[in-house]
Each structure stands twice: as C-alpha cells, then as structure tokens.
Design goal:
Blueprint lengths: L1 H19 L2 E8 L2 E7 L8 H5 L15 E8 L14 H17 L22 H4 L6
Antiparallel strand pairs: 1-2, 1-3
Length: 138
C-alpha cells in the first residue's frame, strides 16, 4: 500500500511538471522525409553529405532550393495554478476526528464472541420456594 502511494505521488509530480513546463520540438524534413528531430534546440539542416546522395526521383532533389522544410511544435507552459488554502476551525476538527473515530470503530469486528459470565457458576439455590409452596405464576 505504501509503495502504491509513492507511485501515485511520483506520477502526480510528473504530471504537474509536464503541465507547467514548456518545450519545443524542431523537425527538419527533406523530400517529405524526416531528416533530423531535436528537442529544446534547433534541428540540423541538410549538409553537403546529404546533397551528395543521389535521388532517383526528379520531383524532389537535395540540390533543389525550397525542397527542405522546417517544422516546429511548441508546447506552451501554463502558470495558472491556484494555491490551495485549507483553514480548519477547531469545532470542525473535533467533529471530523469524532466522526472518523466512530466510523472506523463501527465496522471493527470482534474475533470471537465474548461472554463475560461464561466461566462463572450460577448461584446455588438451597430450596426452590415456588415448587415447595406450589405457587406458580401464570
């Protein structure tokens, strides 16, 4: 249970960090193919090594101007988080403490049925006066 709480806490921390941070993904395309992709910095453009490659298609070549394209995906940060204010008054705190204490103890079961007088013998009756006097309650 404790490890589950830690996993939930770390996942919530990561979610808040992802929501409150900003980053940019830069991509460089040549002939509609992804050549380079970079996160947080610029993608490298086509070098002479890329120009030296031969392309059988005449529609798009690396030497041709305007064939390469740069695209950027920007994820903006959101800083509109509100601070949680939690003020507890004394009577509310006492009520909550009492409520939870009684609620938890309400469902707490006993392991065995406890009979407090199980080990004691009944008192000795020297004479049964009702039978002796033949007085019966109807």
């Amino acid at each position: 249970m404790q490890s589950f709480n830690k996993i939930i806490a770390v996942s919530l921390i990561l979610a808040v960090m992802f929501a409150s941070s900003s980053f940019t993904v830069n991509m460089h395309f040549c002939c509609d193919k992804l050549v380079d992709m970079a996160v947080l910095n610029k993608a490298q453009v086509c070098d002479n090594a890329m120009k030296a490659q031969t392309n059988p298609s005449k529609k798009c070549s690396f030497e041709k101007k305007g064939c390469c394209d740069n695209k950027s995906i920007v994820k903006e940060s959101s800083d509109n988080f509100q601070k949680a204010s939690f003020e507890m008054e004394n009577h509310k705190l006492i009520f909550l403490h009492t409520f939870f204490y009684t609620y938890v103890n309400l469902f707490e079961g006993l392991e065995q049925n406890i009979i407090p007088f199980r080990d004691y013998d009944p008192p000795l009756i020297p004479k049964d006066f009702q039978v002796l006097h033949e007085v019966y309650l109807i």
